[in-house]
C-alpha cells in the first residue's frame, strides 16, 4: 500500500478504473479513508466520488466523520449528490441535507427519488435532539391480520433487503397505520407458523412521540433493555424507529460538541482541511469576545497604577494569580458540567454545589496560597509581599471554584448554554476579583511593601 | 413522589419493606436514581443496597454512572458485595472488582460463586482498552455436530435465561473449544430444522485476539456491520464476545476522561459526593504542578523589572497577552486532539499541522493584535505602547497555535498522554514567550514609551 492513500485514490479515480478504486477504498480502514479524504481538495474529492458507483460512494460517506460527510456532499453536482443520497439511510439523508445551503438542498431534494425525498423532508423538520431527528424510517411493519408463517415467508423472501435494516423487531399496525403490537425476532422463531401475529405479539407496545427530547430517549433506553423504540405521530401512526445506538451516538456528539465549545471551537466541528477563512472566522468569533472581556478585567489593574509603580514586583504575580484562579475555576466548571450530564446534580441545587466547592476551595486555596507566598518571599525577600500575593490567591481560589461550580447550573436553569458561556464568565470575574484583591491589599500595606 | 428521592429510599430501607423499596427504585428514572445515590452517605448507601435482593441491587448498580457503582460496591460488606457481583454481567464484575483495594477485592472474589469469580479474574487481567477488558463471557456456543433443530430446541427451552444474553449470534465450537463457525439468529430462523449447523454456519468466522486494542476494535466495527465479534485466545479457543456497543462506550469513556484531564480533573472522575480529601488531593496534584510552571514563566517578567518600572502601563497588558495566547493555543490543542481521535491526522504530520495552524495564527494574530494595540493607544495615548503590545500579541498568537497544534502530536508519537500534558506545556511556553516579546520590545523602545 502506498504511504499516501489519497494519491492512490485520486490516481485510480483519474484512470477511471471504477472497480479498482472501489476495491481500494474498501480495503482501507475507516481511519485511513478519513485521512485520505482530509488531504484531497474539493475538486479531487468530487472526482473520487464521481468515479464510484453511488452505493460505494454512500458507503464511503457513511464511514467518515460527519464533518467530512457534509463537505463531501457539498462538493458534488446536484445529480451526483442526489444519486448518493438516494441510497443512504433516512437519518443520514436528513443530516446531510441539513448541512447544505438552501438552494442546493432544494435542488438535491428535487433530484432525489420522490419517496426518499419525502422521508428526508419529514426527518429534516426535526432537530437532532428529538426523536424525529435521529429516527430511521426503514423498519418492518405487518398488518395485524397476518399469521406468523406469513411474516416468516416475507422475511425469507426479502432476507437480502431486510439485512440492511438491523432487524430486531417486527411492528404490527392497524389498517390506519397505528402501531398496535411488536414482535421480537426471537418470538417469531419460537412461535408456530400457524399462529396469528396478534396472539404472539406484545400488544400496546411502548413507543415514543416524534418530538420526544434526546434526554428522555436516553432515559428510556436506560430503563428498558430494547434495541429500538417505535416512533409515532400524535394520531398513533407509526413513522419510524429510534435505535438505542442512535441515541448513544447523538449524546456523544453533543458531549464532544460541548467540550469543543468550552475551549472556543464554536460554530461546528473544525477540520484543518476546511478553508482558512472559515477556521479563522469561527475561532475569532470567540476570541474577540474574550479579548474585550480580558481588557475589561485588566482595567482593574489600571486603577491601581500608583500602587504598582511603588511595588513593581506585584506585576510578576498578577498573571500567576489570574492563571491559577482560572485553572481552579475550570476544574469546578468541568465537574459541574459532568454532574449535570450524569444527572447527579439538578440545575437548582446551586447552594449544594457552592457548599461542596467552597470547602475544596478553602483547602486548595490555602495550599496554593502558601506556595505562592513562599515564592513571593523568596523572590522579593519581603514577607509582607509574600503574604499579600498568597492571601489574594487563597481567597480568589475560593471565589473561582464557587463561580466555576455554580455558573454552569445557573446558565442551564436559564436555558443558556453552559459549554459556551461558563469559561468567559469565569475568567472575567475571577480576573477582576483577583486583581482587585491583590492590589487593594497591597495598597493597604503599601508602606510595608514599598519599604 | 417526594421531592427528595433519597429520603424516600432510606426511609423504605429502614422500614425493611424490601418489596416497596425495590418497586420505588424501579419506578425512578436512571438519572433520579443516580441523583438519590449521590445524596446518600456511605452508611445509608449500604443500608439501601442491603435492604434489596441482590438482583435488584445489581440492577441499581448497572443503572448508575460507573464512578458511583464503584463507590457503592466499596461501601458493602464482603458477603453483600459478593452476592450482588454474582448476578452482574462478567464485564461489570471485573470493572467493579478492579476498583476495590486489593484485600477487599480478594475477599470478595473468594466469597463469590467460584465460576463467576473465575470469569471475573480472567477479565480482570486485561486493561479496559483491550478486547479482554471489555468483552462479556456470556454467549451461546454449540458443538459442531449438532443440527439446527437442536439449537432451536435449546433456545426455546432456555429462552428466559438467554434473553439476558442479547443473543444475536450462536457460536459453533470444535471439541477442543476452538471457534469454527457462527450462526446468525436470522439464519437459524430461515434454515430447516433438520440441517446440520455446519451446513448453515458461516465457517472461519472473523474473530479478534483477547489482547486486541480498543482502537482496532473500533476499526473492526466500522468496517463490519456486526453486533459483536468473538474473542479467542492464542490457541483459537473461544472465551468471550466483544459487543459493538461496548467498544463505543469504552471509546466515549476514554474521550470523556481525556476532556476531564485537559482541564485538570485527574486520577479518575470526580463526583461531589466523594470525600473532600480525595477531591482536594486530586485537584491539587495538577494545580501544584501548574503553579510551579506559572512561577517559572512569570520569572521572565522579573528579568525586565526596570523596563516595567518605567512603563507601568505594561503591567495591565501582560495578563491579557498571557490569557489570550492561552485561548488561541487551546483552540489549536482541541482541534489536534479531535483530529487525532478521528484519525484524520497522524502523529508524525507535525509539519502539516504547523502549516495549517501557522496561517490561521497569522490571520488571528493580526486581528487580535490590532484590537489590543487600539486598547493600548486608547488607554495610554501612546501609539508606541499600542504598537508594542499589539505586535507582541500578534506574534505570540502564532507561537501559541503552533505549539498548541503540534504538541499533542509530539506527545502522542512519544507515547505520552496529550490530554494531560498539552495544556501545562502550552501555557508555560506561551507565557514565557509572550512576556519576553512584550518586555524585550518595550525595552528597545523604552525612550518612546516612557516619554
Structural notes for this entry:
- 2 copies of one chain form a homodimer.
- Chain A is α/β, with parallel strands linked by helices.
- Chain A folds into 3 domains: 5-125, MgtE N-terminal domain-like (MgtE N-terminal fold, Alpha Horseshoe), CATH 1.25.60; 141-255, Roll (CBS-domain), CATH 3.10.580; 276-450, SLC41 divalent cation transporters, integral membrane domain (Tetracycline Repressor, domain 2).
- Chain A has helices at 5-14, 18-27, 30-39, 42-50, 54-63, 66-74, 78-86, 90-99, 102-111, 114-124, 131-134, 148-157, 159-162, 185-190, 197-200, 214-223, 244-262, 276-303, 305-310, 314-342, 350-380, 383-413, 418-444, 446-450; strands at 141-143, 169-173, 179-184, 202-203, 208-209, 228-232, 238-243.
- A 4-stranded mixed beta sheet of chain A has the order 1-2-3-4. A 3-stranded mixed beta sheet of chain A has the order 5-6-7.
- In chain A, helix 1 (5-14) crosses helix 3 and helix 1 (5-14) packs across helix 4 (42-50).
- At the A-B interface, helix 3, helix 12, helix 14, helix 16 and helix 17 of A face helix 3, helix 12, helix 14, helix 16 and helix 17 of B.
